[in-house]
Specification:
The protein is about 40% helix and about 30% strand. The chain has helices at about 30-40, 70-85, 120-135, 135-160, 165-180, 205-215, 225-235, and strands at about 5-10, 15-20, 45-55, 60-65, 90-95, 100-105, 110, 115, 185-190, 195-205, 240-245, 255-265. Helix 4 crosses helix 5 (about 165-180).
């Protein structure tokens, strides 16, 4: 598990936070992050969370949450950083929302590969999935599939661009992104590009995990099935439709998807 939240909660501590913006030149100089961490270490200040990100314009944003043990340190931290660390363009302090709760409200927007993104926690995407599956029934399932299909097509175009037109490399990139963004852990078990025969195992599907928890015992992947169908259809340039043959909602270890090409895409 890897926590992407830019927030920290610990009711037993007082918390402080910083956002440090470094110039593009910092990307070519070693030791800057170490020097920042040394400042906290020398003052016996525990760091609770640390995130670094390259922003637009090649700048670097460093987010630090720390235990607020020394109010004087917190008061002077901006001047300390600016005076001791090279390539610093800006330093902003983040204060607690309430004792023991701190949230990054400085860095915006959230991006993935320089494109804006949003983060949906489980309570939100769970509500969305259950609304379509329970309130709208079969119509909702059809809707989820086609939304997923559109997502898959758009993702494939991005992956092909990143892979410079190499299909096999784009498939590798897409599989890793599928894992990285939290959809599940994809394993391509069988892939015949000429025949269009594909078998994919998805472990820990975010969609079917929700359904399993609700006690629904039937193959339940529509959004993910649509993503895979749209993704491979766009990459291979012929119509691919996946069917779910195993599902964790049924008690299987993983969700299995089988597909055979249907027709070429004009």
């Amino acid at each position: 598990m890897f926590d992407l939240s830019r927030a920290f909660i610990d009711e037993n501590r007082r918390l402080g936070g910083l956002v440090i913006i470094l110039s593009p030149e910092s990307l070519y100089e070693a030791g800057i992050l170490k020097n920042i961490l040394d400042i906290f270490a020398k003052n016996s200040i525990p760091i609770l969370q640390l995130n670094t990100s390259k922003t637009s314009g090649e700048k670097v944003s460093i987010l630090i949450f720390y235990e607020l043990k020394d109010k004087e340190f917190h008061k002077n931290i901006i001047n300390i950083i600016k005076n001791q660390i090279p390539h610093v363009e800006d330093v902003k302090v983040i204060n607690e929302v309430m004792p023991g709760v701190i949230i990054d409200d400085v860095n915006f927007p959230v991006t993935v590969l320089n494109e804006r993104a949003i983060l949906l926690r489980k309570p939100l995407y769970k509500e969305m999935l259950l609304y379509f599956k329970r309130k709208l029934g079969s119509i909702g399932n059809v809707y989820l599939y086609h939304v997923g299909y559109s997502w898959g097509k758009a993702a494939a175009e991005s992956h092909m661009k990143l892979a410079k037109g190499d299909i096999k490399r784009a498939i590798d990139i897409g599989s890793r992104f599928f894992h990285s963004v939290g959809f599940g852990r994809m394993k391509i078990k069988n892939f015949n590009m000429q025949l269009g025969r594909i078998t994919i195992d998805v472990y820990d599907s975010f969609e079917c995990e929700v359904i399993k928890e609700e006690g629904i015992r039937k193959p339940s992947s529509e959004l993910v099935r649509g993503i895979l169908s749209g993704w491979f259809s766009s990459l291979l340039r012929y119509k691919i439709v996946f069917k779910e043959t195993k599902c964790i909602a049924l008690g299987d270890e993983y969700c299995e998807f089988d597909a055979v090409k249907e027709r070429s895409i004009e």
